[in-house]
Amino acid sequence: MRIRRPRLPRTRAGQRRLVRAVVAGCVLALLPGAWLFTSTADRLRTVADAPPAPVAVVFGAGLWNGEPSPYLAHRLDATAALYRAGRVKVVLVTGDNSRKDYDEPDAMRTYLTEHGVPGGRIVRDYAGFDTWDSCVRAKKIFGVNRAVLVSQGFHIRRAVALCEAAGIDSYGVGVDEPHDATWYYGGTREVFAADKALLDTVFRPDPTFLGPRDKGVANALAGAGSPGPTRREKG
């Protein structure tokens, strides 16, 4: 069976319509990414200048033989630095635990405790299956209202935009990485993930698993000397 190649318009009018259609398609494809850049432009910080917040939210990024992958370890290193600097009081680790032999939150907690964060200041979210799920659950399940988010630079804008849409006053700390194959893969993936992020902010679907309220963050903050999650300041 022969596959027929598409025929290009032969008339100038047809060619102009084709060019306009291609340009319009490219613009539409780039709009979600442009939205992420503009909507989060004033929300990105470093470990050194991150604003104080009750909670740091660190997103899962894969395990290698049961331990955090290098990218996830770098996120956790930055989170531990935020805690040691007194910029956050509690850490919410959110990741995938959809099967018994794969547990991102427990591995993240173990890593953080080995790097100086007390176990009583770490709360685990076992159903952070994607960024939107993690943000919605942080708000609705754990009662987080203000947070510093920690992820790689290519992902942090999407994390901030989605957590803001979920109702969390968010600032993002983007972890720098060498531009290796993983970095390029992550950056390319974000081009397509921006489309889903825009749809999530518009339609605001429920996460894969919601479940009952969890007082872990509130209890950890109380133990740290804070009355509870801080609400968004007005003005």
TrEMBL record:
<feature type="domain" description="DUF218">
    <location>
        <begin position="55"/>
        <end position="170"/>
    </location>
</feature>
<feature type="region of interest" description="Disordered">
    <location>
        <begin position="214"/>
        <end position="235"/>
    </location>
</feature>
<dbReference type="Pfam" id="PF02698">
    <property type="entry name" value="DUF218"/>
</dbReference>
<dbReference type="InterPro" id="IPR051599">
    <property type="entry name" value="Cell_Envelope_Assoc"/>
</dbReference>
<dbReference type="GO" id="GO:0005886">
    <property type="term" value="C:plasma membrane"/>
</dbReference>
<dbReference type="InterPro" id="IPR003848">
    <property type="entry name" value="DUF218"/>
</dbReference>
<protein>
    <submittedName>
        <fullName>Vancomycin permeability regulator SanA</fullName>
    </submittedName>
</protein>
